[in-house]
Amino acid sequence: MDFSIFIGGQAGEGIKRGSMLIGKVFNRYGYHVFIMNDYGSIIRGGTDYSEIRVSTKEIHTSFNRFDYMFAFHMDVFEKYKDKAKENCFTLTLNDFPYDEVIKKADAEPFMKPSIVLGVLTFMLGIPQNFVEDVIEDDLGKNAPKNIELFRIGFEYAREKNFNNIHLIKGEKTPKPLLYGNDAIGLGAVRSGMKVYAAYPITPSSTLLEFLAKNADRLGIIALQLEDEIAAINLALGSAYAGVPSMVGTSGAGLDLMGETISLAGAVELPIVILDVQRVGPSTGAPTYTEQSDLNLALNIGHGEFPRIVLAPGDIEEAFELTAKAFQFALWYQTPVIVLSDKHISESARTTDIPFSNNYPLMIKTYDKDFDGPYHRYKITIDGISPFAPPGTPDVIVHVNSTEHTEEGYSSSLPETLIKMKEKRLLKMKTIEEDFKLMKFINVFNEGDIAVVSFGSPKGAILEAIEGFPIKFIQVVSLEPFPKEAVLEEIAHVKKIISVEQNSFGQFADLFERKIGRNIDKRVLKYDGRPFSPWELRSIFEEVLK
User: Fold this and answer.
1) Would you say the pTM of this structure is higher than 0.90?
2) How far apart are CA 481 and CA 471, in angstroms?
């Protein structure tokens, strides 16, 4: 059992909120759910839709072909009708008077999806009282009106005698249905984050909303600043004080943070930066997905300094890698960039997040008896210096953005420049050697053809290679790049295919540069929409011929 539901309308008609409610019904009924939201960057009007994919098996992405289509306006249906599967059930404005029903019920337009839920409940044979319980749990004071609309949809479907089946209650134990940005926030908090700073920018802004809404319960501070420059400087100031901190943005905001990222590298302060990628350049298409910030993340900031760049491929990894990002930032005292994208951060999925896992934060703290006089930039065998935040008893902290001595005093002497640059190079080598032990790749399936990728295409690739003799190598750490681990996995493959969402082939270029082997076929997608399993499967079939 694997089917997809399309709900389409205009901005302001509750498409996203309604799709999550419907997704929760199926999730609690024992099914795996994936929700993908497609929307324009306007407050009202336009054409928005959500796909709610439901399955008895674990699913990794949206399918982009629909078994049920509900369209509140005919222009929405006309725009997307080519995505309907054969024998797709449709209920459009021509079939059902959505606006008239809302007006008669004295309800709000954003409650329209509850009508859809009623129709689906009848057609799929889900117990009516079960669904109403979910609505009450989820919507609180808004539940009565939504239940009224739900019953109207249910009765309409019964009166029309729509084809119906009995959807057997799933065997899956209900697990959380989480948006990617929520998982990132929970991962940050699980690892000990205390300060989150951001300026609202799509598609990272829902993380700020989530953390601000739950700040007291989570024991954190979530702050909206006047711009991205203020946000990252506040977060860096918190890190200077010894407080685990993160700043969130998208590509256009990351551009503005470059000088402070370079500052963090120079003064060796731990900070986590989240970049939720969207379509660029410039404003681009801010509500659509892309993977074109890879080169930016790898190179942002003037001068040379160590940094770590991690790329989750799904919502579970978004949780775990964000938690690990804090561990790495504090231990290595360096910037860590988490490279997400719109498809991960703004999609929701039935998750199996390891909430019980611990991610202890360790930092090389200053010990007077062992270290002697405090030198903020003390030369050590691994390049990592003892750290003492301001306020540490009997310690004077000198943190300097100009090149500096071990003690933290400004110096431009040749021997000082060499000493500090080599110290940071040593730290970079330490990170590279440590990361070799952790591998930072995921390998799926076997075959003499290898698909290599990073980030959100993971889900579509996993479903596309089912039954094919194709190995999939997902690179998780982009800096340092896991060269040895990748070389081991591609040693005996005949062809390599890269899959990514940008027009330059940034990951393919990085792969070839680091590995020294050419990509045989580059699969690039840059229309702002995520890969679907069926489109990748057709490409892989051609390669296998």
Assistant:
1) yes
2) 19
